[in-house]
Design goal:
alpha/beta; five-stranded parallel sheet; 5 strands; 39% helix; globular
């Protein structure tokens, strides 16, 4: 069986500037996987609006993958057990993901990595969500900054790596590997209160880049004066796109730097 890698999508629902995806692409077979754990015992459980956004973002990601020749495998259940089940089912010998930084996510990923390492499997994580890792911005004593201004000055002096291009194509995912439909995740509300989200926002990687270009097109020039005026389009409106990883901070940084240079 050819070597097979899983790219475990979490809050990085995009193809461009996705270091975990590109690492997985070094293998002969690539299995894009999203695991939906709908248990409500976490402090980081999704709210109603987040669920709506996630629904459409997953739909957009699946379409983007299909345009490249692949597709998204959606599974439900506890993350660790579900990931292991998919690896057993597919014979995957490697798994890659981009890091999350909430305390619960760090503890979960550390345990999953240890278990996979003990099983002799390849597991690697990457920075797909930050300009710089927390441990890269330290004071002269080697400790984290406790005051924002000196932290920002130190972080601003560090170079920002260039964003990575999306893969040109992806290998097909065998039809024998089943996937839940995004609709089965029941992320949309029973009472359709979400029409405003769908009318004014476009979840997904394409929508994220459209929002960035719209910001650069005009609001960025008046950002300093208009950012606190809700009646004006004075901000980037990128927050939800960044939260779900439909666009990465390196992409935003370089595009804005290109515009302002």
């Amino acid at each position: 069986m050819p070597d097979t890698a899983i790219i475990w999508f979490r809050q990085d629902l995009r193809l461009a500037d996705n270091p975990a995806l590109l690492a997985a692409c070094e293998h002969q077979r690539v299995l894009p996987l999203y695991i939906h754990d709908d248990r409500n015992d976490s402090r980081w459980a999704l709210g109603g609006a987040q669920k709506v956004w996630l629904h459409f973002s997953l739909m957009a990601l699946d379409k983007a993958l299909r345009d490249k020749g692949s597709r998204l495998l959606v599974r439900t259940g506890p993350h660790a057990e579900t990931l292991q089940a998919v690896m057993d089912e597919t014979g995957a010998d490697a798994v890659y993901w981009n890091r999350q930084y909430e305390p619960e996510s760090i503890d979960r990923d550390r345990q999953i990595k240890a278990d996979l390492d003990d099983a002799g499997l390849t597991v690697k994580s990457f920075n797909g969500a930050l300009l710089h890792e927390p441990w890269q911005v330290e004071n002269k004593s080697g400790d984290p900054y406790k005051v924002f201004t000196p932290f920002w000055k130190a972080a601003s002096r560090l170079p920002v790596s260039a964003p990575l291009a999306a893969p040109d194509a992806l290998p097909a995912v065998a039809s024998q590997y089943g996937s839940a439909d995004v609709d089965e995740l029941a992320l949309l509300p029973d009472i359709p209160w979400d029409s405003g989200i769908r009318e004014w926002w476009q979840p997904g990687e394409d929508g994220a880049h459209e929002a960035l270009e719209a910001f650069i097109g005009e609001p960025i020039s008046d950002y300093k004066s208009d950012r606190d005026k809700p009646a004006r389009p004075g901000t980037s409106r990128l927050s939800p796109h960044l939260h779900f990883g439909e666009i990465g901070p390196r992409q935003v940084w370089h595009r804005v730097h290109e515009y302002t240079s």
